[in-house]
Amino acid sequence: MFGTNESTRTVLTGTAAAFALWVLLVFFHYFLPGVYGWLASEDKLGENLTALFYAICGVLVLWSMGLRLKRGETTFAHEIFPFLVGLFCIFVGGEEISWGQRLFHIATPETIAQNNVQGELTLHNMAWFDRHAGKLNQHTILNLIALSFGVLVPVGYALIGWARRLADFFNFPVMGLSCVGWFFFGLLHGQTVAKIDPHWAHTENKELVLSIGFLCFGIGYFRRTRAGRKLVG
Which residues pair with 194 in a beta bridge? Predict the structure, then answer.
């Protein structure tokens, strides 16, 4: 399918699942707003699943890298991009639940609390990342990462020869097209429903959809490593 080793059925199934979840979120927002808000609330199902999915993806990517190193198939220098992707996912998962701060009742040091818009042990809530006052907007950064890593890179890899050769040369971890739908519909949610009918829960529920995309990528990446297959598609 489009130059990857995924079947058309696999791609369509993944895309349909992402679309179905997006439709469900839209339904919740307009007809069951209490459920929609509950999903996005701190320490509730949506946030905890988002953190878990990111963490699992990060662990699976790093585990895959370790397996290839152990088998002598690669070197650490050649694995720099998978290493960074794995660390990124673990970092985002930790940030999502404030690194367990509320779970373990850890107090925020005063110096951090003064510069954190939520008074938490998180980097993404520091004042300079605040979407209203900060110089760097955390949501814009996440959107750009999701758009590039989750949509443009896999589609470019599938359709453009020089993009495929470049990604292969640098051993960049490219996800299969079956994962793209999660990023596409997650971003679409943030650019349609969230713009038309603003609600505080939109961002968190969008992040849940994106995290499922990362989870699917991590699982596929690990399975291909275990089987010794090409790590794309």
Answer: none
